[in-house]
Write a structure and sequence with these properties.
By secondary structure, the chain is mostly helical. The protein contains 6 helices and no strands. It has helices at about 5-15, 30-50, 50-55, 65-75, 85-100, 100-115. The two termini are about 25 Å apart. Keywords: Signal.
Length: about 120
């Protein structure tokens, strides 16, 4: 399809001209999308590895992946967020959550509720 590359190019140009807000200036919705998407990716990897704690949560595949894809695509529709900016935000959040099981456990109930709300 010819339209998709054109739209992607337009988004990239718009993102270059717009000043990207620092992570501290993200909206609550954006911060939550980044946090839950990162958490779902981490837990999916842990579940795949057979981690007993992670296996206590509902399976992250495919629901968590679909949440990740949808919310990150929505975020990248904002001209302030290009693919690299979103990757950086995800990487930062994943790094802070990866070794902190207490933070993962605290974030999981509201993130799982978002899956239900999104009907995923």
């Amino acid at each position: 399809m010819v339209i998709a590359p054109i739209v992607s190019a337009l988004i990239a140009v718009a993102a270059q001209t717009a000043a990207a807000p620092p992570a501290s200036e993200l909206s609550l919705e954006q911060r939550t999308a980044i946090r839950c998407s990162s958490l779902f990716a981490i837990v999916a990897r842990q579940q795949e590895a057979g981690d007993a704690e992670a296996l206590e949560y509902p399976p992250m595949m495919p629901r968590g992946r679909e949440f990740f894809v949808r919310t990150m695509a929505k975020m990248m529709e904002d001209p302030a967020f290009d693919r690299e900016r979103v990757r950086g935000l995800l990487a930062d959040e994943a790094q802070s959550l990866a070794s902190d099981r207490e933070a993962q456990a605290a974030a999981m109930p509201p993130c799982l509720a978002l899956l239900d709300i999104a009907e995923l």
